[in-house]
Amino acid sequence: MMSIKAEYIWIDGYKPTANLRSKTKVVDHFIRSVADAPEWSFDGSSTRQAEGNSSDCLLKPVCIVPDPMRGEPNVLVLCEVLNADGSVHVSNNRAALRILAEKYADQDAWFGIEQEYNLYKNKMPLGFPENGYPAPQGRYYCGVGANAIFGRDVVEAHLSACLAAGLKLDGINAEVMPGQWEFQVGPLGPLAVADHLWLSRWLLNRIGENFGVEVKLEPKPVSGDWNGAGAHTNFSTAAMRAAGGIKVIEEACQKLRVKHAEHIKVYGAGNEKRLTGQHETCSINDFRYGVSDRGASIRIPIHTAKKGCGYLEDRRPAANMDPYQVCAKLMETVCGE
After folding, report:
1. Per-residue DSSP letters for 6-36?
2. pLDDT (tens digit per residue) in 215-270
């Protein structure tokens, strides 16, 4: 008898920052699409998604990719969370993005997300001594050598796993703080980029288990003169990418200015510790945009300005943001009237 292992993955109901959960279902048939993956249930009272006297929640498969950990024909199954009656669970932010993606499909929105993260071992960031601090930041960004780079084995294993799973990773690099790294997802449409980011996060944590390393997405992992961790979100519509699109980009920036406070509310917990106006950030209380300005809320890349069309980079989202909420907010503000 055929035995296929399907790892069902979902997002729990913890606040202010949700966590990934997963469990394995063994089936006797190939799973090649969501139609082949049955719905499943889980104990929502253990994930802050239900009460103990009515604990069942449902997992609805929405994205299937090959499982690079177990190998084919095993699969990873990303799911939306539903209530027992099949209605959308309050923790399910993907459902709202799905509606907006359909509403504004004619604008052909593209996203690219730069996910920064920190690797920890024994409760210390990789590269930090047990007592005191390493050399000041400066030589770590895109560095090479054992005195500058920490955790490359984890990062390389993660990149290979994501590519084997068919996830759209566009690159990786060491970041400004020791033990801090980044991977980029996209460009993809709103649902795909968010799905791929969540699956990439799951794989990063799963691979971290093998190395005894913890992955953290805290916006400001170490206080003091150290960079925080963000999830810069690149965004464009068909009109922005077309000739003369720079005008549309500038109009989008003005819309984003008006809605700044609303965006900050869904751009990650603890983001005020990161958005201080230092370390390549704009203050959380201010909004500004500019060409090639990494201290702005919105950066217009230099090649976009020179070409007169392209995309904008929203530098405000924190590393622990929910991409379903961030993509939804950008589309709601920019694509709406």
Report:
1. EEEEEE---SSS--EEEEEEEESS---SGGG
2. 999 999 998 889 999 999 999 999 999 999 999 999 999 999 999 999 999 999 99
With beta carbons less than 8 A apart as the criterion, state whether 185 and 201 touch. Answer: no
- Report the pLDDT value the prediction gives residue 53, as an integer from 0 to 100: 75
Question: Which is nearest to 175 in space by CA: 137, 208, 201, 207?
Answer: 137
Task: Tabulate helix, strand, coil % of the chain (nearest 5).
Answer: 30, 25, 45
DSSP string, 34-78: GGGSPPEEEEGGGTTSSBTTB-EEEEEEEEEEE-TTT-TT-EEEE
Compute how many other C-beta atoms are within 10 angstroms of the C-beta atom of residue 124: 12
Confidence of residue 337 (pLDDT cuts 50, 70, 90): confident
Measured distance CA(92)–CA(81) in Å, rounded: 6
Domains of the chain from N-terminus onward = 4-92 (3.10.20.70), 101-335 (3.30.590.10)
Query: Range with the lowest mean pLDDT among 136-140, 159-163, 315-319?
Result: 136-140
Cα angle: 123, vertex 199, 122; to 5 degrees: 10
What is the C-alpha to C-alpha distance for residues 326 and 245, in angstroms, rounded to an integer? 22
- State the pTM of this model: 0.96
Helix (H, G, I), strand (E, B) or coil at 176: coil
pLDDT digits (tens, 9 = 90+) for 298-336: 999 999 999 999 999 999 999 999 999 999 999 999 998
Spatial contact of 115 and 231, defined as CB atoms under 8 Å apart: yes
Q: Give the C-alpha separation, 184 to 336, whole Å.
A: 27
In this structure, which amino acid lies at residue 188? L
Contact indicator for 319, 200 with CB cutoff of 8 Å: no
Spatial separation of the C-alpha atoms in residues 120 and 128, rounded to whole Å? 9
Residue 38 burial (C-beta neighbours within 10 Å; 0-12, 13-18, 19+): middle
